[in-house]
Amino acid sequence: MTRVVAVLPSPAWSVDARVVLELLRGLARHGLGVAVATPAQGAVAQGAARMALPVVPHDPGDAGWLRTGAALGALAREHDAAALLVADEATHLAAARGVRVAGGGIVVRRVASGAPLATSVRTRLAARLAPTWLVHATPAEAEGSARIAAVRGRVVVPLSVDTAALRAVPPLAVPLGTRALVLVTDRGARRATGAAVRAVAALRRRGHPWRVTVVGAPYDENELRVHGTAVGLGDALALAGEPVDRAALVAGADAVWVVADHDEGGVAVLEAMALGRPVLVTRGTLGERYVDHPLTGLVVERDDDLGNAALLAMLDDDDAAREALGDAARLDHDARHANADPAAPLARAIAGAASSRAVA
Questions:
Q1: pLDDT of 57 higher than 80
Q2: What is the C-alpha to C-alpha distance for residues 297 and 291, in angstroms, rounded to an integer?
Q3: Strands 132-136 vs 210-215: parallel, antiparallel or unpaired
């Protein structure tokens, strides 16, 4: 059996970890053996367990890429790995060293959506040390990415979420008489996050009972709390961080507002649509490509506090419109993704590389 090991050395949960684990789960559906190499007690290991993915303890600590690569080589030999799947430059280099130590195999690096591939010395060295395939989220990103001569190939694997797993999670209960807004942010969305907080505060001053739960890593937690207090949100603003499983939180929300960009924003929009929640997306972010304004979601301006508050007020005042927007989002998501198999191109590439290795 062809085996793929995802190498995630950080124990902390992140959108990179989630995308890689979703990709690994997709490969498992194609009959590939899979495992996750990560610190055994970390949040990533917890997330892998929730996805029924086996965990191989791997904690490089402060070791350099040579020592980490040697450890990965031993791990690859022990688990007969044909491919090591990574998500960043440093791990790419260590994994390439590991493939050399193991005596064969390939490295598959997933390139974050919206983040240009760095043509650094480390990336070029990694591609020379071991056969490397790059995974991009869209054909445009694959075409526009920097060219590295030693890279063997590029594969397009669109962002996706496991719809069945999401819908199996019961929604989190919302207190009676309130509206729950999940605000998905990232470190680059400072302006949009502040504008969203001010829009909700303006509504609360007019009697609309919205409460905000911020999901993701904001630019500065303390600054966001202070800003929320200054505009009058107080305890109506909660910061949830980056939970391993946020499906219950999203499923129980009356609306999901995605100000995050790139992978974080794209995954959040797909998740909200799959769960049939009304979704607002900041204009110009990656998530905008998934919604058809105003049929399956609402595209909002980054700095229009009053205009965005008016949209939220409409969702609060019109239950039928809110439910219709969520239903349309769910139907659109299902129509686009019901029969999709995003991991298929990568599964074929890995199987082909493994076959070539066996012949050689």
A1: yes
A2: 5
A3: unpaired
